[in-house]
Amino acid sequence: MDAGLFTANNVWMMLATALVFFMHTGFSFLEIGLTRQKNTINILFKNIFIITGGLLLYYAWGFNLMYPGFEEGSSGIIKFSMDSFGISAPENGMTPEYADGGYTWWTDFLFQGMFAATAATIVSGAVAERIKIGAFMIFTVIYVGLVYPIVGAWKWGGGFLDSWGFYDFAGSTLVHSVGGWAALVAIFLLGSRIGKFDEDGKAKAIPGHSIPMATAGVLILWLGWFGFNGGSVLSADPELTSLVLVTTSLAAAAGGFGAMILSTVLYKNLDLTMFLNGILGGLVGITAGADLMSPNEAVVIGFLAGILIVFAVALVDKMKLDDPVGAVAVHLVCGIWGTLAVGIFGAKAGGEQFMTQLYGVLIVGVFCVVCTFIILGTLKAVMGLRVSKEEEIEGLDIHEHGMDAYPDFIND
Amino acid sequence: MDAGLFTANNVWMMLATALVFFMHTGFSFLEIGLTRQKNTINILFKNIFIITGGLLLYYAWGFNLMYPGFEEGSSGIIKFSMDSFGISAPENGMTPEYADGGYTWWTDFLFQGMFAATAATIVSGAVAERIKIGAFMIFTVIYVGLVYPIVGAWKWGGGFLDSWGFYDFAGSTLVHSVGGWAALVAIFLLGSRIGKFDEDGKAKAIPGHSIPMATAGVLILWLGWFGFNGGSVLSADPELTSLVLVTTSLAAAAGGFGAMILSTVLYKNLDLTMFLNGILGGLVGITAGADLMSPNEAVVIGFLAGILIVFAVALVDKMKLDDPVGAVAVHLVCGIWGTLAVGIFGAKAGGEQFMTQLYGVLIVGVFCVVCTFIILGTLKAVMGLRVSKEEEIEGLDIHEHGMDAYPDFIND
Amino acid sequence: MDAGLFTANNVWMMLATALVFFMHTGFSFLEIGLTRQKNTINILFKNIFIITGGLLLYYAWGFNLMYPGFEEGSSGIIKFSMDSFGISAPENGMTPEYADGGYTWWTDFLFQGMFAATAATIVSGAVAERIKIGAFMIFTVIYVGLVYPIVGAWKWGGGFLDSWGFYDFAGSTLVHSVGGWAALVAIFLLGSRIGKFDEDGKAKAIPGHSIPMATAGVLILWLGWFGFNGGSVLSADPELTSLVLVTTSLAAAAGGFGAMILSTVLYKNLDLTMFLNGILGGLVGITAGADLMSPNEAVVIGFLAGILIVFAVALVDKMKLDDPVGAVAVHLVCGIWGTLAVGIFGAKAGGEQFMTQLYGVLIVGVFCVVCTFIILGTLKAVMGLRVSKEEEIEGLDIHEHGMDAYPDFIND
Question: Which family does it belong to (chains A, B, C) (predicted)?
């Protein structure tokens, strides 16, 4: 392959990697912005743990587990071996022969490693303000280190979902729903925060401490999606990468609009948070088929994702589940929607594809739900998941970290 | 064309697009940082509306209106047709034959779409803290959807300004002045905020609520200008793109220095806000000729832009106009200065060019002023532009959005 | 050279430049986050001064001083001449013949210019909350304008350190230690902030005013390091650049983990600030040899850097030195560690290399310490380094800038 093309491809993939890394800043801002000041340090600590620990785990075995530990079309059982610890350069892995010249093996590892941590980050927001940090750290290690790469292997590693024709371009299911299912189970097991539901069981808003930060978080996440979806082309193919950026941005814009319009109609209020969650819903929704859709289809998928967000947020409340940042609505509901949309719109639309997408959604869902129940159920029995009532009221920052988020912030 | 070169060009243009998108985070930070806490949600809502709505409008018809709806050298009258709704892939638009292999048609759309929203964002800062959000949203739709692409078509779409030899590399006039003129008319029609001028008509500072956010906003805008100007080369041509980044950054630095030195001399104070606005002035000032100037010329243009900022800010106050973020000084005054500087410095300097630049500035100015007067004048008559006195005093956040920006922010 | 390859290389280098520029946002956030609210404007002003002034100085003479003002292998004496003022395009500098087609001459200037300002930024954090801004600005001009390029010329400009075989890939010594030594001397000459040590000489924590900002700063710095180290390959060579990104990110993650684990064991507290400083330590530590190490070696180097951070922070306290942001621990201690690690791990490991690295560290250290003593000693004698007691207690923002950082921030 031509050196210029190989180099240009790899430059794109390295910068996509950088943008996906930057999404962790976006998630951090979003999560602390939408939660209370007294739990800010705790959330940041969790997020820093996820990105550092996630990368180290993916280096130690996740990457090997997800990709080459597998024969093509095999049954999905993972072969462990000591060879799979750590990464080192493959025989001819840095030549353009690897991955059709789309990138080098090193770039591959780092791009995938940045993805891996995302699933745990999604959970982090949902369980905020009440989970024991020790329990969360153990959960993260197992979920990022085992559950995520196993599911990933089924499709992106060439496993059975791939053989069936299941399609998930950049991870509506493999990343977002994997995180979203765990978030759903976790908030079910944890219970709601004190004060979230009144004696009649009616949900009350617990406002966050910085909407500007949450807004910046969403804009940074949108920016990061340029890399998340754009990099999932796995090369810098000009036509495909640029189409993906167009569908991604149009779906984000349409998602925001859908949620904004519906929430204004329903609640007679120009609700910024719903606008923001609509953008995220549009982004998650387009992720499974960002490379298959026309701009028109992307607008429709995004807009419907925004509509779904408004109903999903209300439904979660109705079910007496407490999801401080709307992670279930954004990542699970729109992740499912985006995956199914591949069977409804775009280049692969069709009944058979729709059913395959549905099977994929269900199988991944069952697996993630079962795994999360086992992991968190065990942790609940052994060490407990939830902080004490006193700690929850006084804030996790003081109790777990002996520290305030804004210790010297002063008002005149 | 060589696949490597086409791919490298398109990679650059896609990342320039991402950087221009990121500028909306910069604008948001700058605007909320320099305004009062009680109007923060309102400003963020407007900015999120602009980026989502702007992109959707540009998709629906703006792009078609600005670029191909036009015969070369024609009189500037736009032909509308149903064909111009929405975008779809052109016959051979994804091949290197499009745009001399500088990028694909999809990239072209997205890069230009990110530009389109900028004009409205400039207005957003100037009218902050007192405009009715409904009126602003309608104005934005018309201005981004019609006025901006019509002016753009005159030059970048190959219209009459282009035929005359008018030069505006990345939009000192076509983006920044287009926004700046609207800002000027809008603050004239709106009137000043309560408390901005005392009974003797003397301007009083109304300090913002977060200078750190404003500072971060300026640094993000500078970063975004790497894409705004660098991407305006419309390929990754190594010599030209790298020259543009050098002139852009040197003008920013010199603009900051100019404003900082002059304001320190005049007001005996190391004024951070002036330093920051000087940087923005330098960036706007170099934008029209970033590809024509030597580094030395860029330093001179930027430095003079910084000087202009200090005087322009004082002049706006003197005229009893109230521009909370200095948008008129930065985008209009330095936009004009940068456009004229193309006739004074650099590769195209000369009396004839200067006059062409001047005509371009005036024609665009007259058109934008007239359009803004018509749009906002109509809105003023029909629904009113300004919120009630009570709402202005209590804050737009509570009244229009039922929400605080920092609801849980607590001081010990 | 092939146009596609040249273009792809230059695209990478321009974006690496943008990322290094963005590090100044990261440094600003980190420094204001870890210091008190009353000194925020002052720190931001210094940082804006550094990036604008640093770039202008590097344009005026720094670049010429550091690179071509030198014969190969000469003794390190700099030849000044009027020719060395300002930059202009070299005869054939924009062709692929320059720098083996890795980038253009313009890109070279801008990339190096962004590096130059970093050394002064490091000092800025250490001297925060008590240095006179005038003294700091004069120091910055001399340090960025003379000391940094002279040391840089010894190695990167092809001087005697380079002839000896001293290795410093991206600046553990040439950037970070150059800043770190100056920070050490400066905090020694300045003395500690009022209240940092009690009457028994025991260090007391003076908490900062926004840990979320400090966290965002570290994440932005990590992102910036993609460009800082990745760009130091000086081309987009796929194998080498992607290896560098892998070693850089793994060292960051391992550094964070090392510091987090050790500080938790020693102090029985999940300390977010230590976690963050560990990440920075890992980044600084890998910088000298990011292109020489395997992923395993990068993890070891980063982890040990994280361990060192915990001890170094304690040692600085023990020495009764007051370093509000931990700049000496991060940039000096880990800068030295990273430089020596080149002789212990990776492709160049060996006793002779280790000694060369050690000599380089010592020579640079002696030179920087002497220069800083002369510059700051002179300033201390002539104008004083430290603000008055009253000003320190009331805050530098009001006294030097007549301005609050959050003037309109209100609590309900």
Answer: Belongs to the ammonia transporter channel (TC 1.A.11.2) family.
- Which of A41, A243, A249 is the best substitution to test chain B (most B C-beta atoms within 10 A)? A249
Q: How far is A4 from chain B (nearest CA, A)?
A: 5
Tell me which residue of A150, A159, A156 sits closest to A73, measured CA to CA: A159
CB contacts of B391 in chain A (<8 Å) are none
C80-124: per-residue pLDDT in tens?
Answer: 444 556 777 776 667 888 888 999 999 999 999 999 888 889 999
Please state, in angstroms and rounded to a whole number, the distance separating the CA atoms of residues B88 and B362.
36
Q: Do A4 and B4 touch (CB under 8 A)?
A: yes
The beta-carbon neighbor of B17 closest among A8, A245, A269 is: A245
CA distances (Å), B302 to each of A35, A229, B57, B252, B338, in order?
43, 38, 34, 6, 9
Asked if C48 is an interface residue toward chain B (Cβ–Cβ < 8 A), one would say yes
The whole-angstrom separation of Cα A174 and Cα A156 is 9
The answer, for A243 touching chain B at a CB cutoff of 8 Å, is: yes
The C-alpha of C166 sits at a distance from chain A's nearest C-alpha, in angstroms, of 27
**Dist CA B61 CA C145 (whole Å):** 51
Q: Over A187-229, what HEC string results? A: HHHHCCCCCCECCCCCECCCCCCCHHHHHHHHHHHHHHHHHHH
Smallest CA–CA distance, residue B75 to chain A, in Å, is 31
- CB-side neighbour CA atoms (13 Å) of A88: 7
Partner-chain contact C250 A53, CB within 8 Å: no
Q: Is C19 on the interface with A (CB under 8 A)?
A: yes
Contact C7 B3 (CB under 8 A): no
DSSP annotation of A59? I
Residue appearing with tokens 């729903």: A177
> How high does pLDDT run on average in chain A?
92
Which among B100, B218, B248, B272 is the top mutation candidate for probing chain C, defined by the most C β-carbons within 10 Å of its own β-carbon?
Answer: B272
Radius of gyration of chain C (CA): 21
Per-residue pLDDT of chain C (412 residues; tens, 9 = 90+): 899 999 999 999 999 999 999 999 999 999 999 999 999 999 999 999 999 999 999 999 888 888 754 444 333 444 444 455 677 777 666 788 888 899 999 999 999 999 988 888 999 999 999 999 999 999 999 999 899 999 999 999 889 999 999 999 999 999 999 999 999 999 999 999 999 999 988 999 999 999 999 999 999 999 999 999 999 999 999 999 999 999 999 999 999 999 999 999 999 999 999 999 999 999 999 999 999 999 999 999 999 999 999 999 999 999 999 999 999 999 999 999 999 999 999 999 999 999 999 999 999 999 999 999 999 999 999 999 999 999 999 999 999 999 999 988 875 4
Distance between CA atoms of residues A290 and A293, nearest Å: 6
Residues of C in contact with B404 (CB under 8 A): 412
- Say which DSSP state A84 is in: G
Report the gap between the CA of A87 and the closest CA in chain B (Å): 29
Burial class (CB in 10 A: 0-12, 13-18, 19+), B389: exposed
Kindly provide the b/e burial profile for residues B101-122, where b requires at least 16 CB atoms within 10 angstroms of the residue's own CB: bbbbbbbbbbbbbbbbbbbbbb
Contact flag A238-B15 (C-beta cutoff 8 Å)? no
Alpha helices, DSSP H, located in B177-271: 178-190, 211-230, 238-267
Cα separation, B231 vs B228, whole angstroms: 6
Residues A138, A381: contact at Cβ < 8 Å? no
Beta carbons of C239 and A104 less than 8 Å apart: yes
- Domains annotated for chain B, with CATH where assigned, are 3-70+81-397 (1.10.3430.10)
Closest CB from A216, A275, A295 relative to B25:
A216
A405 three-class SS: coil
